[in-house]
Specification:
5 helices
């Protein structure tokens, strides 16, 4: 079975049931946030592992927008927000990798200066 597909299906069913039971269109829009909330909870739990994940902020932002804005605005935002958060995460990862590379190069240079490391390999740039 596809875990993501099941998670999305559960979110659709829960959102639809809540929307039909309450007659509130905002609850129907929340169906897309259910998988994000579950995934975010998994990510939050993963903070105690060696490789944490993080998407709970997106789910919280979507719920806030859905509950505080018009239905049209909430729908438009819920379609765009995952892309915006993905772009932020990608940009942060690139920045983090560059910073880590710089720190590694500085540490290697310092080790070479102390005579603790072999000379650097030549690179083409």
């Amino acid at each position: 079975m596809d875990a993501i597909g099941i998670l999305v299906l559960i979110g659709i069913v829960v959102g639809t049931a809540l929307g039909l039971a309450s007659g509130n269109a905002h609850l129907v829009l929340l169906d897309g946030t259910v998988p994000t909330v579950v995934f975010g909870a998994v990510c939050l739990g993963s903070l105690w592992s060696s490789r944490p994940l993080m998407f709970l902020a997106e789910a919280a932002a979507q719920v806030l927008v859905i509950e505080t804005s018009s239905t049209g605005t909430a729908k438009a935002t819920s379609n765009v927000m995952p892309l915006a958060f993905a772009a932020i995460v990608v940009a942060w990862n690139i920045s983090y990798a560059k910073r880590g590379r710089r720190q590694g190069e500085l540490a290697a240079d310092a080790a070479r200066a102390r005579g603790d490391a072999p000379p650097a390999m030549p690179t083409e740039r």
